[in-house]
Amino acid sequence: MTSCSPLLPSSTFHTSSSRGRPLCRKWALTRIIAHASSNRMSLSADATHKDYYEILGVSVDASYEEIRKAYRLLQKKHHPDIAGPEGHPMTLLLNEAYQTLTSDELRHAYRFSSFNAGTVRNESASGPFTGFAYSSWNGPDRPQAIFVDENSCIGCRECVFNARRTFAMDEACGTARVTSQWADSDSQIKVALEACPVNCIHYVDKEDLPILEYLMRPQPKASNGVYGGGWERPSNVFMAANTFKRKINASFKSNDTASWRTETPGQQKARMDADFKMKAGAFWWLWSWGMRRPEPNSKTKHEEKARDWFGLFGRSCTSDIFKLAVNSNEAPKIVEVVQEWAMTFASSSELPLPLPFKADAVSNGVQLTLISASNGIVESKGSLLVTVKEEEDGMFLTVERAGVTGTGALPGERTILQHLKDAVSGREKSYKFYHIPRTST
Amino acid sequence: MAEQSGYTVASDGENNPVEESQSSLSPLQTAVGIDLGSRFCSVAVWRDSKVEVLSNPRSLRRMPSHVLFKSDIPCSGVSAPISDVELYSGTAIYRAKCLLGRADTDQVVQTCKNCPFLVQTLDIGARPFLAALVDGVWRSTTPEEVLAIVLVELRAMAEAHLGHTVRSAVLTMPASFSRFQQTRLERACAMAGLHVLRLMPEPTAVALLYAQEQQKALHGNMGSGIEKNVLIFNAGAGFCDVAIAATAGGVSQIRAVAGDSIGGDAMVQNLVNHVLNEYASSVEGKSGPPFSKLSAQVVPVAEKVMHALSTSASAVLECEIHERRISRSITREEFERINEDILKRCEALVMQCLQQGQTIVDSLDDVILVGGVSNVPAIRSLVLKACGGKQAYKGFNPLEAAVQGAAMEGAIASGLTDSSGRLDLLTIQAMPHSVGIRVSGDEFLPVLQKNGAIPARRDIVVTTSYDKQTEALIIVYEGESRQASENHLLGFFKLTGIPPAPKGTPLISLCMDVDASDVLRVVVGVCMPGVEKPVLPLVEVRMPTIDDGHGWCTDAIRSKYGLLLELDVLPLPKPPGPSA
């Protein structure tokens, strides 16, 4: 869902995966609208200070030539002539970043303003803390994430050789970095970890990842005239992360007096949600319905366990989103019901789903893939796997979320689940009430 | 669904009638490249990993772009040959591109009145009346129609060569074309059944070709290669454009582009006027046909003289006026003296481009001269001198470079890929003009700056000018003058229902967006301080919205609202604090 925000958190620029792109041209249009409407907010209260160095993928002291080169390479990937209309927003950002960083005057002003923004908010020059990790989450949802302590990294590239989808070298810093969590197989990652000669790759809690990755970025040092200044990062990033967390918690407590300048992650999320709603237009109520309502059935034993193990910072981490105990002798019948349900469900057009999906039968269940078709290119936006499985304490009808969206709920997921429950329990429910004319997608 | 949150004011449907058909195109159909000049036209296509310039049945690759209204079905120079006598008899129309989208007060339209066909003006800012002589009858037409006839024949020719239908094209256009003129060109294409995939300024098409040449030379040598700065000077019959591009690794980034509507036609006309003035003073008092009538007879001869002067130091102009034979020797120096004004304007254009592209002459690696008029020795030496005495780049055919570049862009924009990497190219276009709105009376506030990279987007905040103002007029202009009324009007719309508040309180947020196919959209929303959501539905306008007669609209707005501040907007000072 963050991928739709015009006030993009920097994490979405970081990867070139489909996450950073809008869904289709229609979305791009709504972005303009939302952008125009939220303009005032973005002028005064925009906490996502764009990191132009990050966008272009250059170091802060990059030369003019380096910036130009990076700009050209990225343009070749994202320019709408090559990437189609989806490349439009990214190209806009690239142009903006390029324009700022290639003009001495603007670059100086930008440095000053970003530094200023950082001191006022107590943190950061590479944008404020957004609450999102820089690395994308491409693999299955897990409680743990991989993190490279770049202070210790010697740039040996072993990890990149062993798990190249997960790790990448930052050539400017000469260190390795995780670009995509769990993008390689577990065994590959394990080999990569063991291959590291200085043991600088760590498993960390997923909740800590945004803070750690954020702190790992070089920060500007306060300068006095010509002395001092420059860029640094904490020597012990784990200690720094603990301090940072305490600060965040403190600001949570005192946020009744907080001005926009000290926007907390919570406020930011609220604002971004509001922004998102606006963009989603007529669908916002449906989306929020799907996303906000607590899922009564989601608290499974699995989750409780996960919480016991890793739940130091709140949220549950499993990707099972729905679980229903079934009678083991009914299992084959339920598989049949679910498959039949999915096939009719996919072909019916009366359901108010923001994105269409296709259903594929798998053994013991069905896979529902949400697809977005724009300009003739059909793209998967993630999928729900509905299976009947045997577990240690009986048979369960499980719905698991998979695909590129990571932790976020899929559009229309709630509707699908509701419908599924009704189908399995044999109840018929009319959805005509929620009928909305479909978009042309 | 999403549009429910704002209503869309689409521009006049005729401007982009075939846009929707884009989705129905088969993805592999390549768009052709068309160079439609004011005197000549050509068409090229990317085929078998190379650009192929197509030739007509008479094996001409560069065909005259006039239209002959002789019989019921008008035909263009693409299909039928034409004699000089016919061309200058008034039956043929040949400078349609210069007349396209221009009001009759325009200087260019005034000079076209010397042409043998009929160009009538009332000097009120309306469209000029254009007509061709068909069997003794002046039959009216429009520049769009004339261009459409040429395009139809070019399209038929391309289809005959390719063996399938051609639905989309990349056209080159002069850099000085305003957005309004671009819509007229698109209109002409639509009449010919062509979807315009891109309109690219002529020198930028050449820059793309240069990028490919550079990449070919470096192939296997190194990955991205060294960056090269190149100045491209393109001069044709009606227009003259300059661009500076930085190319490396197959990407050509346009750093500055500038254009002027001067060219070979103007030079010929100067020569004709010079000779006729001499003649008039020599035969004082003798009555004869009007001056402009005479001019049409001398033009073909003068053109030949100009061509001859490109290779020899002097040439003889021979013609017959009032049954009196004139034979006048013209030297190259004399020709240059006559056209001093045009040469100065060319030089100014190059200088302006160098300055705006922030390029010093020493950093230029190559100077490319293309277009028919770049053969004129004076212009060649002038441009090369302005670029620090460099040698002209010799890699291209100066008459075909633009159309080749357009064909390549057509292949890239159609999504074609080439296994040999020859299409691994990209042009990053630059805005040829600034686009902005009128604020504080008649001040022009540029929102998107000239020479900014496309796609471009920027938003600004303006506010009301007096207490309890409920309506505001947003007038969008294109141009460089600081006075809004001197720029090209693109469109206007009124924001109504602004909540009454003290002046300066409502925040009118205005966002301009230009996408890669150069479509300009303006989105306006009104926010009130303290209210998170916009208080009014957003207005999205696709520009330009005006259909005709720039002069009239500007004057009408000024006379009705110009002095009253009641619909005015003021720029809002930027709040202190970080700004992205």
Q: How many DSSP H or I helices of chain B?
A: 13
Poorly predicted regions of chain A are 1-48, 116-126, 222-229, 253-267, 274-318, 428-441
**What CATH architecture label of the largest domain in chain B applies?**
2-Layer Sandwich
Arrangement of strands in the largest sheet of chain B: 1-28-27-26-23-29
Distance between the termini of chain A: 18 Å
N→C terminal distance of chain B? 30 Å
Strand-residue fraction of chain B? 25-35%
The tally of strands of chain A reads: 15
If you had to describe this structure to a student in words, what would you say it looks like?
Chain B: This is Heat shock 70 kDa protein 8. The complex is a heterodimer of chains A (441) and B (580). With 441 residues, chain A is α+β, with helices and mostly antiparallel strands. Chain A is built from 17 helices and 15 strands. In chain A, strands 11-15-14-13-12 form a five-stranded antiparallel beta sheet. Chain A has a two-stranded parallel sheet with strand order 1-5. In chain A, a hairpin with a 2-residue loop joins strand 12 and strand 13 (365-374). The longest helix of chain A has 17 residues, at 104-120. The two termini of chain A are 18 Å apart. By secondary structure, chain B is an alpha+beta fold. In chain B, the strands form seven sheets. Chain B has a six-stranded mixed beta sheet with strand order 1-28-27-26-23-29, with no helix packed on it. In chain B, strands 2, 3, 4, 5, 12 and 13 form a six-stranded mixed beta sheet that branches. Chain B has a five-stranded mixed beta sheet with strand order 19-14-15-16-20, with helices on both faces. In chain B, helix 4 crosses helix 5 (179-191), helix 7 crosses helix 8 and helix 10 (340-356) runs parallel beside helix 11. The two termini of chain B are 30 Å apart. Residues 1-27 and 574-580 of chain B have low confidence and may be disordered. The chains are: A alpha+beta (441), B alpha+beta (580). At the A-B interface, helix 2, helix 3, helix 5, helix 6 and helix 7 of A face helix 12, strand 20, strand 23, strand 26 and strand 27 of B.
